[in-house]
Amino acid sequence: MRRAFDLLLVVALAILLGFLLLPLLALFLRVSPGTLFAQLGSDVALDALWVTVKTGLIAHVLVVGLGTPAAYLLGTRQFRGRSLVLTAIELPLVLPPAVAGIALIAAFGRRGLLGGKLEAAGITISLTQAAVVLAVAFVASPFYLRQAIEAFASVDRALLDASRTLGSGPFRTFRRVALPLAAGGLGAGSVLAWARGTGEFGATIMFAGSLQGVTQTLPLAIYAQLDQDQTVAIAVGALLVLVSLAVLVSVKFLPSWTRFSSA
Amino acid sequence: MLAAAVGLLAASCGGSSGDSKLTVLAASSLTDVFGALAPDARLSFAGSDELATQIREGAQVDVYAAASPSYADELYAEGLIERPRVFATNRLVLVVPSDNPAGIEAIGDLHRPGVRLVVGAEGVPVGDYTRKALEQLGQTDVLSRVVSEEDDVKGVVSKVAFGEADAGFVYATDVKPAADDVRAIELPREAQTEVLYPIAVVVGTEHREEAERFIELVLGERGRAALRKAGFGVP
């Protein structure tokens, strides 16, 4: 009886695993590794890589720069409306990408709430590289914030208090005590946010458009190349699979690694 | 539980093959006309290039109607569809947002610095027609004003309709559904390359009779009237 049950569990796992891995494997088998590498050197792929890295980097500086102090506040203080703020931060996580796209247009588009005023001042965001940065930051920041809040919240309160009693100011306490202790969680959140930003598609194609070398990121290049040169689309897709794998592996090992190094 | 999962999956693919419904793959611009002509058929609308890919991948479908002869010709040469017949024509127009913020009245105005133009990408029928038209006018340098190359007409229309772009090239038949938000500017006659819509039976169809009947309907009086009403030309 017990063995039959175990067998059932194993069968279910095997089917699921096969289902999840087969498409990824098929992607690599569809085109020979030689062609894969050759296509990654194509102009479209290289331009898309550059746009993705550049916009991702700028968005990341914004997300981490604003997200870290915000998460410190949310992770270490209790105040009225805190859970409301936490919910608001997580909303973009569950929002369909198409909604994010329209929402960004409504806010930052040329006729948008804020975009209209910027337009009057001569600044246009939509259909430019700045629009890619905003789209990426919008969808990626909740990933960082969530991890960062948790990381700061799990720092032992007594250590922060001890630091203050020993005469350290709040900034010094944040920098010398809280930040190193939360580093593992912050690193993991940062990598996850970066990965989500790299895969951003829906909001970008609506709000930023798609132009090679300017706004066409890797996911957009896949979509554009589907009806042009499918080997390029597959090669870029395979590259993104490898990047995602690297991200997952580093998230798994990062927290333990930093714990050792800061010990 | 496992059996239930497999059963559910089987039920959900039951819809795609083996029953008696005619399946028509048609270019997005045909959505309204075909919907009215064949309310009982299973209609799937997308870019002509995307639909051609589906046929190459072995989708079980019966009729292919495209917005450009090139994909139909390729599929015919590959033996995947039967001889295509032209059933409609369309033409390219320039659209601007209804409030026309950049004050564009003719193609020449697109040269002005700061103008934000959106076109179809290369390889997408509307994008290829756009480039051909600009070549015939000797105005290919306006392509330097392009801020986005879209993967289908819908992308071009929506960016102009939202006012994010100042102008875009689309088919005449795309203007009517978005008439509240965009205004069409006709192109000079010498810019027009005839946009041809071919239709064909897909090789290996299990609904040959219905497929041929549908094509006759489209080519016949009722089809021509519906096409004309939507802004298409008929051969």
Q: What does this protein structure show overall?
A:
The complex is a heterodimer of chains A (263) and B (235). Chain A is mainly α and 263 residues long. Chain A has twelve helices and no strands. Chain A has helices at 2-30, 33-40, 43-76, 82-94, 97-108, 115-120, 129-153, 157-165, 170-199, 202-207, 218-225, 230-262. In chain A, helix 3 packs parallel to helix 7 and helix 7 crosses helix 9. The termini of chain A are far apart. Chain B is an alpha/beta fold. Chain B folds into two domains: 2-89 and 194-229, Periplasmic binding protein-like II (D-Maltodextrin-Binding Protein, domain 2); 92-191, D-Maltodextrin-Binding Protein, domain 2 (3-Layer(aba) Sandwich), CATH 3.40.190.10. Helices cover 34% and strands 22% of the residues of chain B. In chain B, the strands form two sheets. A five-stranded mixed β-sheet of chain B has the order 2-1-3-10-4. Chain B has a five-stranded mixed β-sheet with strand order 7-6-8-5-9, with helices on both faces. In chain B, strand 6 (117-120), helix 5 (125-137) and strand 7 (146-150) form a beta-alpha-beta unit. Chain A binds chain B through residues 8, 11-12, 15, 105, 109-111, 124, 126-128, 205-206, 208-212, 214-215, 223-224, 226-228, 230, and chain B through 1-2, 47, 49-50, 53, 101, 116, 118, 121-124, 146-151, 155, 158-159, 162-165.
Broad structural category of chain A: mainly alpha
What is the alpha-carbon Rg of chain A in Å? 22 Å
Shape estimate of chain A: globular
Class based on secondary structure composition and strand pairing of chain B? alpha/beta
Helix content of chain A: over 70%
Shape category of chain B: globular
Sheet bearing the most strands of chain A, described?
none
Overall pLDDT of chain A, averaged?
90
Number of helices of chain B: 8
Strand content of chain A: under 5%
Distance separating the two termini of chain B: 57 Å
Note the run of SSEs of chain B as H and E.
HEHEHEHEEEHEHEEEHH
